[in-house]
Amino acid sequence: MKIVASAGNQEIAMVYVVEFPGGLVECVEAIQPPRTREEKWVLMISVLFGCPISCQMCDAGGHYRGKLTDEEMLSQIEYLISQRYPDGHVPSQQFKIQFARMGEPALNPAVLDLLTSIPDRIHAPGLLPSVSSIAPHGTDDFFERLIEIKNNVYPLGKFQFQFSIHTTDTSRRDELIPVKKWDFQKMAEFGERYFRPGDRKITLNFALAEDSPVDSGVLLDFFDPDIFLIKITPLNPTYQAVASGLKSYIKGEEGLHHYPALQAIEDAGYQLILSIGEREENKIGSNCGQYVQKHLLEDGGLSSGYTYSIVQPLPGRD
Q1: In a domain, 180, yes or no
Q2: What is the pLDDT of residue 237?
Q3: What is the CATH number of the domain that holds 48?
Q4: Quick one: which of 62, 141, 213, 242 has the fewest CB in 10 Å?
């Protein structure tokens, strides 16, 4: 692999543009202030060259050119580790690796191969792999094998899984995620097979736009609060969100009382996480849904994101 560009702040988050024979992807490393890197360190790696999903809020969609191998995914992780911990030992209490920068993980079986082998290939006692998926149609085998890997390799809360849903309105969900995918009933049935005592609950993630309702009654019709938790995030500033006319429902740092729909979710018995995140990451372009190569193609023009300079080429090692 070759690092061809970077952007960011070494004390918050760094985005690296990586070149492989199959094309360019990106990987990210970040901390979440006020936590230190030794307390929690987050990596985001790419799993596909492009992404065929093209969600309305995501700049990483489109121009799909194939799957990364498990070695290509591992090389992203090893590079990011080497920049912070040259001896290869990651001392972070929680070392979270998210398969979420570019590409839908369920479309690449090599993700499962890497999940199986990675504890033996890196030295990180705090390892916490995290897979986020929109649950595309035809990926049943991927998810059944994921259950086996979670049970055998990452038991008792050492693995995090998330369905990205974004709204409980099924018609609106089809607009936001314009591919054939699992319905809520199938997701719920998967959750019942997946969850064991001691596991982390499955996250239902909503990058919530103003016109994309989240209804606690619909949630209760399908998703057991003992198995699923709800995570609400702002809609990050992306070119795709602007082009789609999306505006974030979450405006600032207000608590649940400011958002009646969210308070209703908590009142329904769900564990609810309102995750605002580090605003500076929007300017860096390291948050979910952002993709600095899209910014380069658009030649700027998004004042709320991607405002950090992109260094090309990056001096130093491949």
Answers
A1: yes
A2: 87
A3: 3.20.20.70
A4: 141
